[in-house]
Amino acid sequence: MTGVELALLGGSLRPGSVSERVLRACADLAADRGARCTVLTAADLDLPLYQPGATHRRPAAAELLAAVRRADGLIVVTPTYHGGMSGLLKNALDHLEDLASDRPAYLDGKVVGSVAVGWSEHGAATAVAALRTTVTSLRGWVTPMAVGVNSIELAALEDVDAGIRADARLMRRLTILVGQVTDFAGRGSAARLVPSA
């Protein structure tokens, strides 16, 4: 698959976190499928709180919006905080309100895969549900596959990246999710098929 542009958003403020490493594993899987990936992590998403109607945005906000506009699809990975997504990621998604006047608006026609990383599968599942709700509110097309990652064992490893690659069940689920994002995005933007409301 060639020509697919993806934006991958990571919601952890901690460099090298399990969540960021899962994000990078998704980027590697997508690149293996021929996708061009823009990976945005804490340094890129550490934005001031979203303020509707503000006339000036920081360059980082403009870069986020540009990456999302270019993207045929997105993969969003968040750490789980009290059953939901991180404030960093929620704030970045709130900044997508600035896409309201685009045609198509928001994430309309873009496929979005959701991944949450937490100390339990239950917590990760509730964060995935929150992500999917927010993405749907932004008119994104959520993938059937979403992934909740129990990070308690991964976080204890000296080489987290190797631990992710060695976890056959996790890699199978991430591969399915990335495949759904790249395959749907590769069929052409649904925005060209379905008019924006």
From TrEMBL:
Per UniProt, what is one Pfam family of this protein?
FMN_red
Please name the Gene3D superfamilies in this protein's record: 3.40.50.360
Q: Where is the NADPH-dependent FMN reductase-like domain?
A: 6-149
- Extract the coiled-coil ranges from the record: none
Molecular-function GO term, any one: oxidoreductase activity
Entry GO terms, CC: cytosol
Q: Which PANTHER family match?
A: CHROMATE REDUCTASE, NAD(P)H-DEPENDENT FMN REDUCTASE LOT6
The protein's name in its UniProt record: FMN reductase
Classification from the root reads:
Bacteria, Bacillati, Actinomycetota, Actinomycetes, Micromonosporales
